[in-house]
Amino acid sequence: MKIIEKERGATPKVKVDYTPVPCMQCTDAPCVKKSSNGSVYRRHDGIVMIDPKKSIGDRDILLNCPHRLIYWNEEKNIPQKCTFCAHLLDNGWKEPRCVESCPSGALVFGDLKIRKAKSLI
To answer: What is the pLDDT of residue 114?
Structure first.
């Protein structure tokens, strides 16, 4: 996941804010529409994924994200983005690691309409 780091203040009182920016899971995702050979696709649960084998060397995938949240892994020669820990969700986890470990509870995951309805009960 992309993390924006913003530094404020001056020595000795420097403050740093970290803002997580996950994939926006666009409804009509340009990265999916413009992907060649199905290298970017939407799973049955709505999570947009990048196939690490089909996307090798394809830097154009980065340009197809309107939010610029796909980054290039130089070592693996592939584009990558937040996967919402899809591999964990597939194994029964209820939420991604970032949500589970968020100390303030600021991150939420899932259908917000369902979550809101449950909180009203």
So the answer is: 63
pLDDT digits (tens, 9 = 90+) for 6-28: 999 999 999 999 888 889 999 99
What one-character-per-residue DSSP string does the chain give?
-EEEEEEEEETTEEEEEEEEE-----TT-HHHHT-GGG-EEE-TTS-EEE-TTTTTT-THHHHT-TT---EEETTTTEEE---TTHHHHHTT-SS-HHHHH-TTS----S-HHHHHHHHH-
Residue 67 burial (C-beta neighbours within 10 Å; 0-12, 13-18, 19+): middle
